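#help-structures

NK: newbie question. if I give both the sequence and a SMILES, will the prediction place the ligand too? trying with flavin-adenine dinucleotide
OV: yes, paste both and it writes out the complex. here, I ran yours:
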Amino acid sequence: MTVVERAPELRPGGQAVDARGVAKDVIRRMGLDAAVRAARTDTAGAYTVDVDGKVLETFRADDHGGDGYIAEIEILRGDLSQVLYDDTRDGVEYVFGDRIAELTQDADGVDVAFAGGDRRRFDLVIGTDGLHSSLRAMVFGPREQFVRHLGMVLAFYTVPNEFGVDRWLIDYQESGRSAGLRPLQDATRAMAMLSFSAADFDVDYRDVEAQKRLLRERMAGLGWLTPRILAHLDDTPDFYLDQVAQVVMDRWSNGRVGLLGDAAFSSSPMSGGGTGLALVGAYLLAGELAAAGWDPEAGFAGYEARMRPFVEANQEIGRLHVQSRDVPDPDAEPAAEPEWDLGLIERAINGVDLPDYAEVPDSRAPARPPVR
Ligand SMILES: Cc1cc2nc3c(=O)[nH]c(=O)nc-3n(C[C@H](O)[C@H](O)[C@H](O)COP(=O)(O)OP(=O)(O)OC[C@H]3O[C@@H](n4cnc5c(N)ncnc54)[C@H](O)[C@@H]3O)c2cc1C
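OV: that's the protein plus ligand as structure tokens.
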């Protein structure tokens, strides 16, 4: 197996992601429970505050058996990829600093031309290149066909911890906007998190200066610690801003090319389930392909059938979370506080069967020498 990553090396840090329910089972079955737990963040929970910083609601990381709003398995995205990389690097070929430029497939394999100049043939190609997947665009169609914006923009960046943030995430919300701070392992710094509603809004995710200007405009006048958080926009070493979006597709495979993770079924950061979906999806995709003797049609069909209801439940949670932050129309009847459907939450955490593929006779992908 070959993994191709566009970045020149493993990307460290990044946002905190979580594993709940069946995703924890997948981690256990990979034998990585201890390594993942050792690399966890130390977040104790979250609380919401009013404009004066008075605590309104508290969510603890050990609520709901560790599968609550802040999960007991919360880990930086970069630390999770380090654990996965360390465990697989001896049996897997990793190629950093390259990407697929072109591919063509026939009945027996896929010819891939890499941007760096290599040409190779593979039995199967799986696109795991995230929300803005270029493999998806190459094989399935343009981004606009599949990416659904949910009408909200999220921004994250590191600030000095002049706010005394400790092991708790703090969130302040006002009229469809929010500002928050979360702890980082390096206690001298904290992560600022800002959001605002933005229907029909497109942002060039490469133009950081324009994004910072926009963030300042949209957050102007927001109370609590927001002005002090915004004051660090020019000296932050990192910056992320993007539309909250989901990927909705009728199928996640085309011949010998499949999609997995955010590229196929992003549920958005607002679902809190994207990493769980990617882990569970990877387990089922590998298992179903192996169980089908590496026949792409049968393997992809099994993976899609098992995954789809689980994906839909997580996407529903993402949409409901965005809606719960909508500004109420001043002329509308006062709406009741949305009731969370506990059945839906359970389906989003545990709603998929994980067969035990250890019994599958040939559970390793067939080896094929590279053709250059
Ligand atoms: C701000 C934010 C907050 C989030 N919060 C949470 C959370 O609390 N809980 C949670 O579970 N999930 C959260 N998520 C979602 C989570 O990060 C994703 O669902 C998860 O990382 C998906 O994994 P992935 O491997 O499919 O894609 P990604 O993590 O996006 O990884 C894609 C990889 O592909 C590489 N790549 C991109 N293009 C190419 C190319 N052309 N060729 C080769 N490589 C390429 C990228 O460099 C990257 O390493 C959050 C996401 C964001 C953005």
